């Protein structure tokens, strides 16, 4: 999924100096952004916080009634230095990329694209699609040692699950929890878990005290660590916990995101992640000139042009504003 903002900010982020070693409860409110015909709630980067572990971008969209609409339509666009994670609760998304991948992603299937040195892709709802579309699109920054790795795409239809008699069903998207590990490739200590809670559930999950965590409420009313959460909100929890308590007043769906605090400084602009403004300038030039990112076959539409770079010099910023 692309960042379609016409004037994206140029940001330097990362580093551990703003990560609390103690548990916190920081409610992050979404910013509404446009993704073609789809409105999304952007939780990361946020006015208060820019990263959770190596998770650096979180969009939550839907549920939208697209029965009489084309649905998602994101033209070909580039990425560098990151992984994209496509995650659905309802509907389907058709993924195409410059490696030749063509894959329909369905609810609770993992679509994981590693951009590495360069890739381009496009996403759209299939011509024949379900009436509802509901999901999240997330980015994971690659560490410097792997940011120029070869691009790749993975689709995992079967993922490990955890079930509790107290009303919890969890799907491990990335990383490992309670002895269950996702087959998805990761490059930093990371965790992504989809959690479904039944009405009246009151459960606890073990977590790593050295990881920082955040929880995105996809649907239903929940309490996480005794904080009431409405759909579309994200609660940042910091580090220092060994377990997390989840309670539900209705059937509910959440995403638990976590990882070791990312200790590198990165520059993130539009759909690129680098380590300097020069990295971003080169990626933009290569995309606009047709170099490095390859071509996508079968998409009915033109590639997205890159926005103009801002005239102001790059300013150093950390994990929080």
Automatic annotation (TrEMBL):
Residues of the Pirin N-terminal domain: 41-140
Biased composition (Pro residues): 304-313
CDD domains noted in UniProt: cupin_pirin_C
Coiled-coil ranges (or none): none
Annotated region (Disordered), positions in chain: 298-321
Domain Pirin C-terminal: 193-292
Superkingdom of the organism of origin: Bacteria
PANTHER family reported in the protein's UniProt record: PIRIN, PIRIN-RELATED
Family, as annotated: Belongs to the pirin family.
Name used for this protein in its record: Pirin family protein
């Amino acid at each position: 999924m692309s960042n379609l903002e016409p004037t994206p900010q140029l940001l330097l982020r990362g580093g551990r100096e703003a990560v609390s070693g103690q548990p916190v409860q920081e409610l992050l409110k979404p910013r509404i952004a446009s993704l073609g015909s789809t409105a999304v709630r952007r939780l990361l980067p946020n006015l208060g916080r820019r990263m959770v572990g190596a998770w650096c971008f979180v969009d939550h969209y839907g549920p939208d009634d697209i029965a009489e609409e084309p649905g998602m339509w994101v033209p070909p666009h580039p990425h560098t230095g990151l992984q994209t994670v496509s995650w659905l609760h309802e509907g389907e998304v058709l993924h195409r990329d410059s490696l030749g991948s063509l894959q329909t992603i369905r609810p609770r299937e993992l679509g994981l694209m590693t951009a590495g040195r360069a890739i381009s892709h496009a996403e759209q709802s299939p011509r024949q699609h379900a009436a509802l579309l509901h999901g999240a699109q997330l980015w994971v920054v690659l560490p410097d040692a792997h940011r120029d790795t070869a691009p790749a795409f993975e689709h995992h239809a079967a993922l490990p699950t955890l079930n509790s008699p107290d009303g919890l069903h969890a799907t491990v998207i990335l990383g490992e929890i309670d002895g269950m590990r996702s087959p998805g490739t990761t490059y930093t200590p990371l965790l992504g878990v989809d959690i479904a809670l039944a009405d009246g559930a009151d459960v606890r999950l073990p977590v790593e005290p050295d990881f920082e965590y955040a929880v995105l409420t996809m649907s239903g009313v929940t309490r996480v660590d005794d904080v009431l959460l409405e759909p579309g909100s994200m609660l940042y929890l910091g580090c220092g916990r060994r377990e997390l308590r989840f309670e539900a007043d209705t059937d509910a769906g959440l995403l638990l995101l976590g990882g070791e605090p990312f200790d590198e400084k990165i520059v993130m602009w539009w759909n690129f992640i680098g380590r300097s403004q020069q990295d971003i300038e080169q990626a933009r030039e290569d995309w606009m000139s047709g170099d490095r990112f390859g071509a996508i076959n079968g998409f009915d539409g033109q590639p997205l042009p890159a926005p103009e770079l801002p005239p102001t010099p790059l300013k150093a910023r950390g994990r929080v504003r």
